[in-house]
Amino acid sequence: MEKTPFYQQVRDRLMRYAKVDTQSARVSDTVPTTKKQFDLAYMLRDELLTMGASDVWLDEDTCVLYASLPATAAAGRGMAFGLVTHMDTAPDAPGAGCKPWVLETYDGGDILLNEEKGIVMSPRDFPNLFHYVGQDLILTDGTTLLGGDDKAAIAAVMTMAEHLLKHSELPHGPIALAFTPDEEVGGLARDLDLDRFGAKVAYTLDGDYLGYYEDETFNASHATILFQGRSVHTGTAKGILLNAADMAAEFMGQLPPGEKPQFTEGREGFFHIVSVRADVEHAQVDLIVRDHDAELFAEREQLLRDVAAKLGEKYGEERVSLTIVPTYRNMKEIIDRYPFLIDNLTRAIRLAGLTPQSIAFRGGTDGSALSHRGLPCPNLSAGYENAHGRFEYVPIPSMEKNVEILLHLAGLFGEMGA
Ligand SMILES: [Zn+2]
After folding, report:
1. Residues of the chain whose pLDDT is less than 70?
2. What integer pLDDT is reported at residue 204 of this predicted model?
3. With contact defined as beta carbons under 8 Å apart, do 338 and 79 qualify?
4. Which of 252, 293, 311, 321 has a Cα at 20 to 30 A from 212?
């Protein structure tokens, strides 16, 4: 496969970044959730300073790293845009001690990841591998994740930045960069300071299939329902005992049985019980609610309120309490107000020789939250495969393509009015 001038840079970068353990934590009382995320932040900060980026600043309290590339377009031209990537890796598989390696010119067969432990990755289990025959792949040793999610995107963004800084003859507007912690644990880029960031529109780069983008995510909330029972001796319980565990079961029994993640796909929403803790005196059910459609989403939340109210009538209002906390909202209603965001993105993907494809993402991105905070922010794929697991890999040409897409994107925003 023909290598682009970016081959060596994206390869070296991902190899370097993958070795830094930046795993975030679901349970933590620090910001960010793990301090080791700073290790990559310092590394990126130094690289950005060395390549001559502007406004390089690491927020030492929150571990958000900022930088910008000054405009090169003629006065009055070049609209500003931003790129947001995340530095942490998922807590779902081991992250420490990552030993990335490169398999050159993949032949389409089984890949021996770890001779000593006999760990093999086969295209029979991971048929997407067939898409990458003839390409160079960055792989793990089968004992850790790679962290290509999202370091493959960071490698592409840094390579684009270096290229633009070296080639001031390429006209573009101001480009804002941010590297954030804790995406994998629902951080939602909370500490990204939009004033400091500067750009009014941005993209995250965080997804698998190359050339895919997302301008639609779920609406999401988390519901907790508490039941208070009344425990008495079971021998004399008739008419007196109230079993909180039974109330919890009754509640769950009133949710539509087919509307669960294991029975839904595409744009179908669901309820998902994430935990139940129950005894006679107390019960707590935690569940998440998801739907792309805002109206259907509101109906789902209303259903929870109705069921809770019904149980309250039956057992006493004071024995049932429901709280619903919003998690994130579908970005689409915001993104649709800025059609040039998707126009430029799909044009850039085409200019790089790919076919843009969008999916109604069955999840949320940092961009879902950022869009509703005032920074419309669709998501472009980073090109990693098998994220969050020990079989994660990144085809190097996918990162090269992403550099190309970003350079085209810079050019297209460069042609717009400032
Ligand atoms: Zn990610």
Report:
1. none
2. 97
3. no
4. 293
Residue-wise pLDDT for 259-305, tens only, equals: 999 999 999 999 999 999 999 999 999 999 999 999 999 999 999 99
Nearest alpha carbon to residue 15 among 183, 151, 207? 151
CA distance 9 to 29: 36
pLDDT score at 2: 82
Q: How far is the CA of 340 from the centre of ligand 1 (A)?
A: 24
For CA atoms 401, 402, 405, 411, the dihedral sign is: negative
Which are the catalytic amino acids? 88, 183
d(CA 12, CA 162): 14
- The reported pTM is 0.91
Q: What is the DSSP string of 370-381?
A: HHHHT----EE-
Q: Count other Cβ atoms within 10 Å, centred on residue 195.
A: 5
Q: How far is the CA of 24 from the centre of ligand 1 (A)?
A: 12
Ligand 1 centre distance from Cα of residue 250 (Å): 37
Q: CB-based contacts of 79: which residues, under 8 Å, 6+ apart?
A: 173, 413, 414, 416, 417, 418
